[in-house]
Design goal:
343 residues, alpha/beta, 3-stranded antiparallel beta sheet, 11 helices, 13 strands, 39% helix, 16% strand, binds flavin mononucleotide
Length: 343
């Protein structure tokens, strides 16, 4: 176990005394410094097999979920921690500050977080410039969204701007239509809206493929709060349009699992242990409906190696973590890689 993993329990007790967003900023800064000093040891236990998914070779099945490194400021450090892939963003065409603070809350009794960050990010161009300089061997996904003040009728334009800007530097593109913190965003999951969005992006992907001489897969990230009929409609569109992959799931707007908690009524998306089961159910449902060759990235409430194995067993080809990292630290990377080694 690396030094970072061993010392995380102590570090966590200090970080948890800070406001959650400040703790996140401190951690990011510390990671950058320790990585630049060569002190961020790799977590990868021996004999982890690379996996071929989306036409790419992932060093391992574990990724960092979107939102942790919104600005692509720390990609090399995340790679050094042992992640096989890092999804940066969500990035929007123009920089935007996000919602007023506080906007990130811990619910430690539930191993959960509530966030309403609202796509605070430095804009796609800034992230692209950083990604051009990356050294990591980890696969990098670029998660894209729309600016908060772009009406849904023009949302497609924002996604197109981001797709074109990121194409040259991204290994894959994740189209985020499932954050609960941008008004109306989830309406893009409605059948006609998603058909229009995906068909336009697939068309542009074909143009960009010719221009750049490489195919960058386009995936869609969906919510856990979909009804069975909505899941069927989405899967129908994904199959018909030949989407390259699905990321399931984002945070939930449900509060059933945290009822009675003093922070339960905070607006935003709930993540961590309360979404573990629901996210796995959504993965299983999509696996039963999507073309067998369309991969799913499973995310939501992975707090142990066993949780990651459950997602893979439900039909995910790769997994990602966010909240689990806050509660378990770098040890989670080691545990997931050890548990999934033989799957
Ligand atoms: C503070 C925070 C910010 C997030 N920001 C984004 C984001 O910008 N884009 C996105 O697609 N998902 C975002 N997510 C969702 C995560 O990527 C992930 O889908 C979700 O948290 C479920 O995984 P988890 O239970 O491991 O956290 C965010 C999650 C958290 C907790």
């Amino acid at each position: 176990m690396s030094l970072a993993a061993q010392t995380y329990p102590l570090l966590k007790s200090l970080l948890f005394r800070l406001d959650a967003e400040r703790a996140h900023e401190w951690t990011t800064r510390m990671m950058r410094i320790t990585h630049s000093l060569g002190l961020l040891g790799s977590e990868v236990p021996g004999e982890v097999k690379p996996v071929n998914v989306l036409g790419l070779t992932f060093p391992n099945v574990l990724g960092l979920a979107a939102g942790m490194d919104k600005s692509a400021s720390c990609v090399d450090a995340w790679g050094a921690v042992g992640f096989g892939f890092v999804e940066v963003g969500t990035l929007t065409p123009r920089p935007q500050p996000g919602n007023p603070k506080p906007r990130l809350f811990r619910l430690p009794q539930h191993d959960a977080l509530i966030n309403r960050m609202g796509f605070n990010n430095p804009g796609i161009q800034s992230a692209v410039a950083r990604l051009q300089k990356r050294k990591t061997k980890a696969i990098v996904g670029v998660n894209i969204g729309k600016n908060f003040d772009t009406p849904n009728e023009r949302a497609v334009d924002d996604y197109l701007i981001c797709l074109k800007a990121a194409y040259a530097v991204a290994d894959y593109i994740a189209v985020n239509i499932s954050s609960p913190n941008t008004k109306g965003l989830r309406d893009l999951q409605e059948e006609d809206a998603i058909r229009r969005l995906v068909s336009t992006l697939k068309e542009e992907q074909a143009n960009l493929q010719k221009e750049h001489g490489k195919k960058v897969p386009v995936l869609v990230k969906i919510a856990p709060d979909l009804q069975p009929a909505q899941i069927e409609a989405l899967a129908r569109v994904f199959n018909e349009q030949g989407i390259d992959g699905v990321i399931a799931t984002n945070t939930t707007i449900s509060r059933v699992a945290v009822q009675g908690h003093p922070l339960a009524d905070q607006a935003g998306g709930l993540s961590g242990a309360p979404v573990t089961q629901r996210s796995t159910e959504v993965i299983r449902a999509f696996r039963g409906l999507l073309h067998p060759a369309t991969p799913i990235i499973g995310v939501g409430g992975i707090l142990s190696g066993a949780h990651a194995c459950e997602k893979l067993a439900a039909g995910a080809a790769l997994v990602q973590v966010y909240s689990g990292l806050v509660y378990r630290g770098p040890r989670l990377v080691h545990d997931v890689l050890a548990a999934t080694r033989s799957v």
